[in-house]
């Protein structure tokens, strides 16, 4: 919940203009953190655990924030629930957790062939085909107005127009600056929320503890 909310902001852990750290004074970050604490103290969260997988199958969860690639996981973990799900645009606005990366090892025997493979699989045409077959949203803007993409529906999710929903969400993302320590900061903030969720940490003290832990992690 925290990661969902903190990636919907207009400015995250750094000032967009000065590139200076401001996570501890940015109200958008603290509001996202508080939302995570609310979820952690609600007794309703269990994503990517055995309880979550079981809950998918018996309707124990009302909602999950689901990027397009997660749809396949839900279908695979709960195949008997076809038609019991639907998809809607996430509240507040679009957000972006990041993405995947492809790299060729320095010691690769045939880096040229590896590069040709990457170019072929990551072309606009290949990405569109992959989405239509497996649900991973293309990163190539050339296909965002493609009729096949926008017309794509998913019968497992009650015929939801996933091509239109996810493409419009992607086009609604407002980029913010990501600094060299953004990953460390996010991990420490999430760890403080997890401490409340799994270790009975004090919710009222969690934000101050998180700010201190970030400072220690960054050597401040």
Determine Rg (CA atoms, Å): 20 Å
Distance between the termini: 28 Å
Which CATH architecture is right? 3-Layer(aba) Sandwich
Count, helices: 10
| Counted beta strands | 0
What would you call the structural class?
mainly alpha
The ordered H/E elements are: HHHHHHHHHH
What is the share of helical residues? 40-55%
Low-confidence stretches: none
Strand content: under 5%
Number of domains: 1
CATH homologous superfamily descriptor: Periplasmic binding protein-like II
Mean of residue pLDDT values: 92
CATH topology description: D-Maltodextrin-Binding Protein, domain 2
Describe this structure in words.
The chain has 220 residues and is mainly α. It has one domain (2-98, 152-217): 3-Layer(aba) Sandwich (D-Maltodextrin-Binding Protein, domain 2), CATH 3.40.190.10. 47% of the residues lie in helices and 0% in strands. It has ten helices and no strands. It has helices at 2-6, 27-40, 50-58, 70-77, 111-121, 124-134, 147-151, 162-171, 182-199, 206-217. Helix 2 runs parallel beside helix 9. The two termini are 28 Å apart.
């Amino acid at each position: 919940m925290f990661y969902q909310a903190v990636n919907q902001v207009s400015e995250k852990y750094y000032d967009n203009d000065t590139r200076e750290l401001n996570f501890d004074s940015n109200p958008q970050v603290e509001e996202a953190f508080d939302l995570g604490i609310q979820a952690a103290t609600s007794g309703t969260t269990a994503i990517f655990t055995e309880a979550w997988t079981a809950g998918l199958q018996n309707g124990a969860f009302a909602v999950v924030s689901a990027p397009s690639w997660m749809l396949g996981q839900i279908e695979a973990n709960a195949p008997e629930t076809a038609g019991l799900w639907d998809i809607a645009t996430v509240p507040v606005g679009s957000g972006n957790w990041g993405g995947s990366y492809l790299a060729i090892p320095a010691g690769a025997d045939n880096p040229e062939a590896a590069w040709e493979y990457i170019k072929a699989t990551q072309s606009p045409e290949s990405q569109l085909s992959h989405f239509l077959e497996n649900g991973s949203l293309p990163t190539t803007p050339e296909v965002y107005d493609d009729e096949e993409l926008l017309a794509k529906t998913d019968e497992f999710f009650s015929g939801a127009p996933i091509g239109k929903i996810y493409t419009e969400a992607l086009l609604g993302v407002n980029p913010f600056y990501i600094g060299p320590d953004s990953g460390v900061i996010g991990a420490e903030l999430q760890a403080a929320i997890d401490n409340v969720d799994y270790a009975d940490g004090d919710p009222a003290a969690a934000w101050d503890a998180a700010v201190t832990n970030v400072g220690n992690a960054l050597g401040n």
